Amino acid sequence: MIEHSRQYDVILDAREDRCPMPLLKVKLALSKMQSGQVLSVTTCDSGSLKDIPQYLDLQGHSLLSLSDVKNEFCFIIQKDSINTPC
């Protein structure tokens, strides 16, 4: 589910998804966002702890924060202007 809020430009709830869906949804959400916008992603898939940061590094996006609360992982991502096509 994708939502919009005042604190974040886009909120992505991927808690029910398993690998590779959280990463695919992050890619899709970022592709629709403008440079500088902020995406909040929540997932329960532990594979995301490796997959999402690695993808962000490759694409030039910024991981602003990562938290783990009771095995729910929350990524705060800023879409940067320097990125390459998916």
Can you put this structure into words, describing what you see?
- This protein has helices spanning about 20-30, 50-60, and strands at about 1-5, 10-15, 40-45, 60-70, 70-80.
- The chain has about 90 residues and is an alpha+beta fold.
- It is about 25% helix and about 35% strand.
- A 5-stranded mixed β-sheet has the order 1-2-3-5-4, covered by helices on one side.
- The chain contains 2 helices and 5 strands.
Overall strand count: 5
The overall pLDDT, averaged over residues, is 90
Strand order of the largest sheet: 1-2-3-5-4
Order of helices and strands: EEHEHEE
Shape: globular
What is the strand content? 25-35%
Rg over CA atoms, rounded to whole Å, is 12 Å
What is this structure's SSE topology?
Blueprint: E1 2-3, E2 10-14, H1 21-31, E3 38-43, H2 48-59, E4 62-69, E5 72-78
Parallel strand pairs: 2-3
Antiparallel strand pairs: 1-2, 3-5, 4-5
Provide key terms for this protein.
86 residues, alpha+beta, five-stranded mixed β-sheet, 2 helices, 5 strands, 27% helix, globular
